[in-house]
Write a structure and sequence with these properties.
- By secondary structure, this protein is mostly helical.
- The protein folds into two domains: 149 residues, no CATH class; 116 residues.
- The chain is 86% helix and 0% strand.
- The chain is built from ten helices and no strands.
- Helix 6 packs across helix 8.
- The longest helix has 67 residues.
- The radius of gyration is 51 Å and the shape is elongated.
- The protein starts with a helix and ends in a 6-residue tail after the last helix.
Length: 366
């Protein structure tokens, strides 16, 4: 276990054997890296379980995710060097801190969902009902105009029948009152005034009968059509795909809604996230705030030796290349100059020979 935790911390075992006082320090750092990987395993596994609802897939992904986070954390820790200058070390560690914080946020979110699982399940019920209601409203909305048109037509037809009925009843009442002397001329008789009112009432009755005979079939037809549309709406609502609402995105939204509704849940959520941030960044801060230990000095010494040896080797090689280039350049220039001088001498000798030959010849100028 000790050797494994030192492996997790990413230390050089040969150097650490020379500095036994640093062993416990790096065992603690390695344990932090290990537990972060374990938490990442549970976090990733639970996140995938909410997506696929399959234990085997969740375990496989959780293992891969945990190993990846473990490897990243181990690399972040072992890549940090303590140079003894806090500001310089912090600037070097800053990108690693940003990466560590990002990893902490990613790891913490699924575990937050698990911590508030009961509250989230209760909130998901409300969210599910809201979604189902929205789906039903969308279905009804597609037929709302058609149903409203049927209703308006039926109301309009019934209103006309009612108006005719009221007019008929009024004329009928006037005829009756004229007959018994309680209205009209106030004379009880069946004279010409009564007959006129009776005729008007009978005509109103005939108009009502005609209107009723004309409108009632239309009203029944429109009511049947409206019932058919309502039945179609109810059928579509019944056939809606009402799968269980509880995926990863839904749970995150439910947690966000719970946080906005309850200050206690909001604060608890923040503190859980900060806890994981502290765990993830702890090894980096330990290296930042700790003084240079013997291990750091030996590691720096070893790296410096390699650096100087490499510098010496590269410098010698660079100088040898420069000397060779200088030698080849100067020798080449000298050879070119010598060839030029030799060519000039040959040309001068040839010209002198040709001049002597010309002097020995006789020319006829006539």
């Amino acid at each position: 276990m000790k050797n494994f935790l030192l492996f997790c911390a990413g230390v050089d075992r040969k150097i650490l054997e020379k500095t036994p006082t640093d062993v416990n320090k790096y065992i603690g750092i390695g344990a932090t890296v290990l537990f972060t990987g374990i938490l990442a395993f549970f976090s990733g596994g639970y996140a995938l379980f909410t997506v696929f609802d399959n234990v085997f897939i969740a375990l496989i992904f959780g293992l891969v995710w945990g190993l990846m986070i473990f490897n990243l954390d181990r690399y972040i820790v072992l890549s940090m060097k303590n140079n003894g200058k806090w500001f310089k070390d912090f600037m070097i560690a800053f990108p690693r801190l940003v990466l560590a914080i990002f990893l902490a946020l990613v790891i913490s979110k699924p575990l937050e969902l698990k911590v508030f699982e009961k509250e989230i399940d209760a909130e998901l019920v409300h969210m599910e009902q809201e979604i189902f209601k929205k789906q039903e409203d969308e279905v009804r909305g597609r037929y709302r105009a058609e149903i409203a048109d049927y209703q308006n037509n039926i109301i309009q037809l019934k209103t006309e029948i009612a108006q005719k009925t009221v007019a008929r009843d009024s004329l009928e009442m006037m005829a009756i009152q004229e007959a018994d002397g309680t209205g009209g001329s106030r004379k009880r008789n069946l004279g010409p005034i009564y007959k006129t009112k009776r005729t008007a009432a009978d005509n109103a009755q005939k108009e009502l009968d005609q209107l009723t005979a004309l409108y009632l079939p239309v009203i029944k037809e429109k009511e049947a059509a409206m019932q058919s549309v309502n039945a179609s709406v109810n059928g579509q609502i019944t056939n809606l795909n009402r799968k269980k609402y509880g995926g990863l995105a839904a749970r995150m939204e439910a947690l966000d809604r719970l946080g906005s509704q309850s200050k206690a849940i909001y604060l608890a959520n923040i503190f859980i996230m900060l806890l994981f941030v502290c765990i993830e960044t702890a090894p980096i801060f330990v290296k930042l705030i700790a003084r240079r230990s013997p291990y750091d000095y030996l590691l720096h010494e070893l790296e410096h030796e390699f650096k100087m040896a490499n510098l010496e080797k590269t410098s010698l090689l660079s100088n040898a290349v420069k000397n060779k280039l200088q030698f080849d350049t100067e020798v080449g220039i000298y050879k070119n100059n010598a060839k030029i001088q030799m060519e000039k001498a040959l040309i001068d000798a040839q010209l002198a020979k040709q001049l002597e030959e010309l002097k020995g010849q006789k020319f006829d100028w006539a």
